[in-house]
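Lecture notes, continued. The same structure-token format from the folding unit now serves as the input rather than the output. Read the line below as a description of shape only.
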């Protein structure tokens, strides 16, 4: 069972009755998804206050539009900026159209300071470096919130936890899946109880290299491929 809660290009959240073992296997398989990231930087000039190594590290964390490349192929991106009368803020968009977010800051330049480099991107997996991880995947048990007649008067819960509760003459559950509360938090609110069900709330947040739904699909494909390989070895 899968019940979709939220879905757009950057985030997908759903309720599911899959077991925690399967959910964790899918989560870990995200590290098996090939993505494009900057792996090498040739810096020809750098007058900024940041060391070359820091510039290279920041460039490696810039999300790039994912594309399929042959083994050994690279995508080159050139960056050349000179500070004007008021200096310059060097942003990720200076690398060109392969960048997902154009406004990520790389460094600052003072008047007449320059930076010139060539960044080379290649395909890799998160198991080798975190810069290749396409997004954040996590899950938790689905909360079940019960409100008795006595608990309907606790308007302060709706005031303090607006994503979870609402108050329309009486306390109601708005979005149980957003709750991180437990019964210990409800000690001062008699009539309101919270327990965890066996169902899971599975969340995927994309860094921009691919849509959230594609992260889930590709993680499942990677898991299936690994299971098939194990099956062959066992036979």
């Amino acid at each position: 069972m899968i019940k979709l809660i939220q879905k757009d290009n950057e985030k997908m959240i759903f309720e599911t009755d899959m077991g925690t073992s399967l959910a964790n296997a899918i989560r870990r398989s995200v590290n098996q998804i090939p993505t494009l990231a900057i792996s090498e930087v040739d810096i020809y000039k750098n007058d900024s206050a940041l060391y070359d190594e820091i510039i290279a590290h920041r460039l490696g964390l810039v999300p790039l539009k994912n594309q399929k490349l042959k083994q050994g192929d690279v995508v080159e991106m050139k960056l050349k900026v000179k500070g004007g009368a008021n200096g310059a803020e060097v942003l990720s968009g200076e690398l060109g159209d392969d960048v997902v977010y154009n406004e990520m800051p790389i460094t600052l330049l003072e008047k007449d300071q320059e930076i010139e480099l060539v960044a080379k991107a290649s395909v890799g997996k998160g198991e080798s470096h975190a810069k290749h991880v396409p997004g954040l995947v996590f899950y938790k048990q689905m909360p079940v919130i019960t409100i008795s007649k006595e608990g309907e008067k606790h308007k302060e819960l709706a005031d303090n936890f607006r994503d979870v509760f609402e108050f329309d003459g009486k306390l109601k559950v708005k979005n149980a899946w957003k709750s991180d509360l437990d019964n210990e938090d409800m000690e001062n609110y008699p009539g309101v109880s919270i327990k965890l069900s066996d169902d899971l709330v599975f969340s995927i947040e994309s860094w921009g290299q691919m849509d959230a739904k594609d992260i889930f699909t590709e993680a499942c494909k990677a898991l299936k491929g690994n299971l098939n390989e194990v099956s062959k070895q066992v036979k």
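Point for the exam: Helices lie at 20-29, 52-60, 155-160, 212-234.
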